[in-house]
Amino acid sequence: MGPQAVYQDDNARPHRARVVNDFLQQSGVDRMEWPACSPDLNPIENLWDELDRKVRSNLPPPRDVQHLYQMLQAEWQAVPQRIFTTLVNSMRTHCVECQNSQGGYTHY
């Protein structure tokens, strides 16, 4: 990451656990303020979903955590650049729809 990096999460309970907060604070990592329950604004959620589908389609399934890790790395490396570009370019639309719904449900 780097000295100007800011950590962003979706306020899920595991991300807000005391141990995580303590680690980030001790490591000098700044955390971005983020509305609760706002995966609509987080393009990585779509990528995690795609990676999950790809790994689950592998037969046989991963035999242990190390094998799962290797599968995830391989699938991550195989994600075409156009997917990342599409996710980044979709952010304006996501933000506008979230704003129009006043933070409520969107179709994303």
From TrEMBL:
Pfam families: DDE_3 (PF13358). Coiled coil: none annotated. Residues 10-58 form the Tc1-like transposase DDE domain. GO terms for molecular function: nucleic acid binding. InterPro entries: RNaseH_sf, Tc1-like_DDE_dom. It comes from the Eukaryota. This is Tc1-like transposase DDE domain-containing protein.
